[in-house]
Amino acid sequence: MEVFEAIRILILFALAFVAALFITPFITHFLLRFNLRKKNIRDEITAPVFNQFHKGKANTPTMGGIIVWGTIVGLALIFFIFAKLFDGFASYFDFVNRAETYLPLAALFFSAIVGLADDMFGILGKGPKGGGLSIVQKLGLYFLVATIGAWWFYFRLSWTTFYIPFVGGVEVGWWYIPIFIFILAATAFSANEADGLDGLAGGTLFFAFAALAVVSFVLHRYDLAALNGVILGALLAFLWFNIYPARFFMGDTGSMSLGITLGVMAMLTNTALLLPFFAFIPMIESLSVIVQVISKKIRKKKIFLSTPIHHHFEGLGWPESQITMRFWIISAVMSTVGLVVFFLYRFL
Questions:
Q1: Which of 33, 154, 195, 331 could crosslink 204 through cysteines, CB 3.0-4.6 Å?
Q2: For residue 90, what are the domain limits?
Q3: pTM of the entire predicted model
Q4: How far apart are CA 39 and CA 160, in angstroms?
């Protein structure tokens, strides 16, 4: 049984990779044809370090995250329809499951649309300083999406237990709602902050979803593991074009949807407290922003040259590709540590 499921996941991973590679030229042509480019780079006065290293990236196509979530949603629909029309072998690849993947797929799609709207604001020069929604406005959207998810988990699914490693399930009652909201908002915000260097968000999220694929498989949630496999295949194809020098940026339509989905999957697998391992770099990126803001408000001084922290390392003279690769290595190591913790508290 497990062998067939593993083969199924690997095939879906490969299909997603090929499908994403196939649609990339069409998406790229679409982005260029309609001039959907990142036009606003933070100015030299408010963000001197960022401007110094990124002003040459102005007019780079954005919203490349469509390739990732478009592939995922497209394959989910295709195999779901095929399974209904052609019973038997076609259903083998159908990973749309009410208990396991309805919520992650819904979260992925609807948050992608919200992120797409934010990207369009930026392209059209709307919002504060003409760069789309502000951080406060984005946080508001994250909390809105997270609140809808929390309502569904608490009132429709009656989830009131929060799992703590080496302790087990703890009954938290209605506190499950704010916990859920915080986790989803945090993962969305962290994924967004990590999307600042070519290949950085895609690579670090790849390791996070890879860890959740292992967790889902061990928990015998094979459809959820299959969905993770599809996400990994699409992300890998996206990275083929997004590594330095990037052909296009992921955009909020990618980072927001993947961040929200990561949080939903962590809650579904009761591994929310392992997210600091699985999504270590995105977490550090968002924490650096929070610490910098607090320091500027209270001490009137910066701690970092620029935030998120990858810009600090750029200011220190690290090449962009070197920062990305080193952060990938850290992500791989920390995701492995998270899996070790998962296996220890599950089997010991």
A1: 331
A2: 2-347
A3: 0.94
A4: 45
